[in-house]
From TrEMBL:
Protein name, UniProt field: Response regulator transcription factor
PTM annotation (4-aspartylphosphate): residues: 67
Pfam hit, one: Response_reg
Native organism taxonomy: Bacteria, Pseudomonadati, Pseudomonadota, Betaproteobacteria, Burkholderiales
Biological source species: Roseateles oligotrophus
InterPro entries noted in UniProt: CheY-like_superfamily, Sig_transdc_resp-reg_C-effctor, Sig_transdc_resp-reg_receiver, Tscrpt_reg_LuxR_C, WalR-like, WH-like_DNA-bd_sf
Length: 337
């Protein structure tokens, strides 16, 4: 135990999950340390609240066993400070307490603990509880890494609880896109997205098939939603039979045709507004619809379209659309209407 206490720098050289024991009683520390060491864990010890905060910040243990009652800064305050820091907030905390009154146990959980064990400490019980929470922490960390990877490649992602439509998590890019397409939603999933999710969750769970994507359009921008994976609550979902109790990760990606519009303008020597009008003609919109989209009058759209016909050397909407579509597909072979 002394070797572990001497240098935090040695921790990286030792195998197993890293456990920080925080207790001011040497006998408790010794019993736990020996049991954990024999089970293959790397053990770090702190005997005060202040030292615990320092060691947790420096070493970032995988789990913390925290004594609730210590002189000076007690375990409740230590837990609150750890959870308030972004660097240590993810670390599961298991309280060790001799206090069995309900209010003390509730206080431990309110302070940020995921579990508690009562004194006198039973090492086998502690080990069993730790394994459960370490497994949960690894799954949560894996989800975070998945989300970060998606963001890094230009995707946005959200996690939705199907039962009440609450947005449990969203990346900054996802929040911005949802606001653009659906207005400020706060913590609620946009109704069309939630309806699509609820419609396809049963098949996604039972048949393990990827459902059709949902699309939302905003002018020349298009946002796709793909159901990626179930993030948790599988046991509850199985009980419910329809996945309504679980959270689902949805991956979003925006495709903008603004580059297409710009390319049409350059190729046909159109003004920016003429290129926009031609784009919507290609998309099959009539003058009234184009006017609504562009915030102009139908008469103005008609004038722009007449100039487009002249520059393209055609006389009809169908001919203009066909010429533009052929040029677009030559420049962007994978573009779809």
């Amino acid at each position: 135990m002394n070797e572990v206490l001497k240098s935090d720098g040695l921790l990286a050289l030792q195998g197993g999950d890293l456990v920080l024991i925080v207790d001011d009683m040497p006998d408790n520390v010794r019993v736990l340390h020996d049991a954990l060491d024999e089970s293959g864990y790397t053990v770090l010890v702190a005997t005060s609240g202040e030292t615990a905060l320092q060691r947790a910040t420096q070493a970032l243990p995988d789990i913390i066993l925290l004594d609730a009652m210590m002189p000076g800064m007690d375990g409740f305050e230590v837990a609150r400070r750890l959870k308030a820091s972004t660097a240590t907030a993810h670390i599961p905390i298991v309280f060790m307490t001799g206090l069995t009154e309900t209010e003390h146990l509730v206080a431990a959980l309110d302070a940020g603990g995921v579990d508690y064990v009562t004194k006198p400490i039973k090492p086998k019980e502690v080990l069993a509880r730790m394994q459960v929470h370490l497994r949960g922490a690894r799954q949560a960390q894996g989800a975070v890494q998945t989300r970060r990877a998606l963001d890094a490649f230009g995707y946005a992602s959200i996690t939705v609880r199907v039962s009440d439509g609450r947005l449990m998590w969203q990346t900054p890019l996802a929040r911005e896109l949802l606001s653009d397409y659906f207005g400020a939603m706060g913590e609620l999933t946009p109704a069309p997205v939630l309806a699509w999710l609820r419609r396809h969750v049963p098949a996604a769970r039972e048949q393990q098939i990827e459902p059709p994507r949902f699309y939302a359009e905003l002018g020349a921008r298009r946002l796709s939603f793909a159901l990626h994976q179930q993030m948790g609550g599988e046991e509850e979902a199985e009980d419910a039979g329809d996945g309504e109790s679980s959270d689902w990760l949805i991956v979003m990606r925006e495709v903008s045709d603004l580059a297409i519009i710009e390319a049409m303008g350059l190729n046909f020597k159109l003004t920016a507004r003429e290129a926009e009008v031609l784009y919507w003609v290609v998309k099959g919109k009539i003058n009234r619809d184009i006017a609504d989209i562009l915030g102009a009058s139908p008469a103005t759209v008609k004038k722009h379209l007449e100039r487009v016909f002249s520059k393209l050397g055609v006389e009809t909407r169908t001919s203009a659309a066909a010429m533009a579509l052929n040029r677009i597909r030559a420049l962007h072979p994978h573009w779809e209407l």
